[in-house]
Amino acid sequence: MLLRNSLWNLTGAALPALVALATVPWLISGLGLEGFGIVTVIGAIVGYAGIFDLSLSAGAIKYLAEHHARGDRRRFAETFWFGLAFYGVLGLAGGVLLFLFAAPLLARFFGVSALLQDDALLGLRLAAVGFALSQWQNYLLVVPQALQRYDRSAGSEALFGILANLASAAVAVHGGGIAGVVLARVALSGANLFWLAALMGRLGMPLAPALPQRDTCIALARFSGHTWLSRLASLLHQHADKLLVGALAGPVALAFYTVPSQLAGRLLGLTYRLASVIYPRVSALAATGNERELRALCLDATRILGYLNFAALGMITLTGDVFLRRWVGPEFVADGYPVLLLVTAALMADSLTTIPSLINDGLGHPKITGRFAIARGLLGVGLVWVGVAAGGIIGAAVAHLLASLLMTALFIGYVHGRTVPVSVRETLRTCWWPGFATAAGALVLALPLKWWLPDSVGGLLSLATAGALLLLVGGFAFIVRGDERSALRVASRRLMQGAR
To answer: Is pLDDT larger for residue 455 or for residue 463?
Structure first.
């Protein structure tokens, strides 16, 4: 089930991510560098509006999964309706505030040219409406995930994510401007909300209206209050660098920073999607007290996820400069390629905390995860501020990496062997070191091809294919266990038979 859910969850993120990367050149062409930077700024501002989200969705996944595992239909319904009401109020309040303060936000913090000011203001006000809709949309997505029905949530994410990216590119190319791009995304967010509401009925869950009891509300709010720290840190991590680059260096510099960092974030984000399916599983294991399976799950997930992230770093190192040149133009390579490498390394360091964070939260220890996460976010903001002022977009990327390395080392040193049922030494020996060595070996073997192959689209495809094959062979030979290889072969045969 975990393998199936991981693949579905990956698909739900991978397909929109690929379409998003493919449409970036169209957005830049239709909006210009400044317009593309402003759309990025609007996304960052709307993202920060989520600071008022007390991360109730994380608590909802945990308690919905536990109540479902125990067959407690009443508590399941109470948890669902409490979350739905909360996100309705949050969306309305946040959307109204963002709409009212749109003009001062743009005027005070970002140097938008006079030609684009009206378009940017309308775009931000439309995004305020989108924020209100997205709160219910994001909450409804977690309900099938809590039931470990990632096929349902992934299908919705893939369909509407692809449509949103294609619609944005089409509107930009046809002169719709900043506001037109934002309007297209808001409209599809509304359509997705109706789709998910219909899905709730098809899943046959116990969702008859139920007034949440005091103990249900307290348990959910207490857990979510701690995980909100992680949510706040995530907002700082995802958007602070863009806001600071935009404010200190301007929208054009932000475009040169956003394109490579977006590429790195989307690629490393895919591996997180593979791992995140263990969260409801850990919650269910915690409810039944199965510690042996929990320990095995921790080691297996860390081993696979670690290798995938090391492999992603290797592929970006190998092909990143050529890809940027062919994807968005040679002007993005000089500064963009170092940013790409630095941000990817920072995200890879952060990824080492993914499994222990999910296990901590699933076992009911969000306070530890939250405190480390908020420290990471605050440290990152401070360092990025200094980095941008001292070294522009390269300084911002270096600051990201320093914050990630320091806080990752502190976090894994604290939780492993304490709340996570595996020591750092065992994790390093059985998971991280084999993954790093295998990925590095594949990269060394593929590196000479970087200079032998022609600097063309065909050369890029050949280089990427060779690197991927070497990583795949290395992974099957040294990372994947024999029983896992057998399970993959069986799953592949069933898939091929089903396709016939």
So the answer is: 463
Question: Of 12-16, 129-133, 311-315, where does mean pLDDT reach its minimum?
Answer: 12-16
* Threshold 0.85, pTM exceeds: no
Mean per-residue pLDDT for 220-224? 71
pLDDT confidence of residue 499? 43
Token duo for residue 231: 């949510």
Q: How far apart are CA 30 and CA 165, in angstroms?
A: 14
Do residues 98 and 127 make contact, with C-beta atoms less than 8 angstroms apart?
yes
Per domain, the residue ranges of the chain are 1-212, 236-493
Helix (H, G, I), strand (E, B) or coil at 416: strand
Q: Is 462 exposed, middle or buried (0-12, 13-18, 19+ CB in 10 A)?
A: middle
